[in-house]
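Sample intake sheet
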Amino acid sequence: MRVQFQDRGGFQLLEPGNYIAIVAEAREGTSNAGNPKIDLKLNINEVIVFDQLVFTENAGWKIDTFLKACGLAPAKGEFVELTADKCLNAVGRVRIGTKPGLKDPSKVYNCVDAWLCDKESIAIADKARDDIPF
């Protein structure tokens, strides 16, 4: 098979900490337990990190914090139609951590520990949204 070499670089691991994340891809699907979900592919300083929003009562807090962190939250008590398209290009601040791989626990990967929605994080994310030319 013929391929064009583009010097894409190898796997990169971010240091744990707080970063601005841009949703580069969002795909709707179904979790292993049969619940609706949206898989998120995040671009964080040109490093790809994956996250997932699963639509269950127990995971509602994560969807709420995602919406707040990305400036997508409606007024309290209002409904919002959250789709993959609505998530695409969303910008928010996240706390990145690390976790062992599922297939190979000796490998370490980045994970989203939290979508940050404190006042400082929201102000930083609002500024980042203003600076990104979409």
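Comment: The first strand starts at residue 17 and ends at 30. The chain has a mean pLDDT of 91.
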